[in-house]
Amino acid sequence: MSKRYRRFNKAVRTGNTRKVGKLRAYLFTLGIVVFMVLSFYSIDYLRKLFNLSSPPTSSIDGLINQVDKNISGALFNLGVSLKDVKVTREKRKDGELVWEFKIIRVKLTQIVKEEQIKSEFKRFLSDFYITKEFKKNSAFLIVNVSVYDIPTHTIKFDFEGKRPYSSNAIDSVFKQKDNRIKPQVAIIVDDLGLEKEPVDRIIGISKKLSLAVLPYLPYSRYTAEVAHKRGVDVLLHLPMEPKESSGYMGVDAGDGVLLVGLSKQEILSKLYRNLESVPYIKGVNNHMGSKFTENGELMEVVLREIKARGLFFIDSRTSPNTTGYQLARKLKVKTAQRDLFLDDPRRDEEYVRDQIRKLILISKEKGYAIGICHPYPATIKVLSESIHDIEKEVNVVPVSKLVE
User: What are the pLDDT digits (tens) for 342-380?
Assistant: First the structure.
């Protein structure tokens, strides 16, 4: 036993608190110093052990793969088609670190706002280890992406003469005179059946709108019946399982949701009940379903039953990897797919107007376009106010006219 320890015990026994206090202060200070030394040593040790300043090749590959998926999601939200994307790969090396650098060229065949591109990339590439740099000239917008300061991607947006549109330029869409045959536009209103009042308002806007009705809601049958009486296309808005990364769980899709964990017989049983729950349907489109629509085996079960009933299928494209549209074509199911979502619960009326104008531009480029919206107050108001202007530029048609 050391002298210092014996003195400490004696001080405690005799009640000599002054000495004990000094000793405690000394020990506390010593503890802090030891802790700081060990902390710095541990950090340095961990940095060397895991090579944090330069991630190992296996780690960087995994992170790059995740960034690839995020970039794919951003391009999908911007409405970019795979045929308009060209990827060049090259191996890069820095010391022992080897990785694949990608140059992604995106030819924008439809007009997109520069702000929208930046917004989507900032949203999808928000992880702390990712840095983004935006560069712009008259014809291109370039996004440089790095992972832990290692350059991994360059995305080059080629506007091909289609510069990001301004409000003034896009307003001219409604003022243009064109003697050619008008393009066709279908607008599907999703998520109907919960309330009566939005249905009555939407039905009054135009009988050329198409209504997608969720099963088992208080006004599901009412919506289908009123729409049918007006000669409006009725679709079953079929609940399908979303990915958790979308912010939703399977149960969020509602009653009757088709889940990937179910057997094919269970899926068919649920599908039968869903199809029977909404009368007068001409077709089906998916509600959510970013997870389910990626499963080709289960989608085939659904599509074969849709075909057997003489219905069509509209792929809402809630995932960039959906199998719905291509599989429907392969199975010879009458089908089409969404071009654009027209609204967002977090956005205002001006956003809806911009999306409608963009839908018109898409239709003028390809001859037709399909937009999907929801019974939000802002959406209903904009549709009510602008439907006649829209019809001056395009032929608004029931979505059943655009399936093939």
Answer: 999 999 999 999 999 999 999 998 899 999 999 999 999
Contacts of 54 (CB under 8 A, 6+ apart): 94, 95, 96, 97
In sign, the C-alpha dihedral spanning 255, 259, 261, 262 is positive
Closest CA to 212 of 225, 240, 193, 228: 193
Only one residue has tokens 């591109």, namely 117
List Cβ neighbours of 203 (8 Å cut-off, separation of 6 or more): 211, 226, 227, 230, 232
Quick check: helix, strand or coil at residue 208?
A: coil
Q: Is CATH 3.30.460 the classification given to domain 57-158?
A: yes
Which amino acid belongs to residue 394? V
| 108 and 86 Cβ atoms separated by less than 8 Å | no
In CATH, the number for domain 176-401 is: 3.20.20.370
3-state secondary structure at position 240? strand
pLDDT tens-place string over residues 206-263: 999 999 999 999 999 999 999 999 999 999 999 999 998 777 777 678 899 999 999 9
Residue 211: count other Cβ atoms within 10 Å of its Cβ: 27
Residue with tokens 């849709």: 306
- CB-CB neighbours of 118 under 10 Å: 15
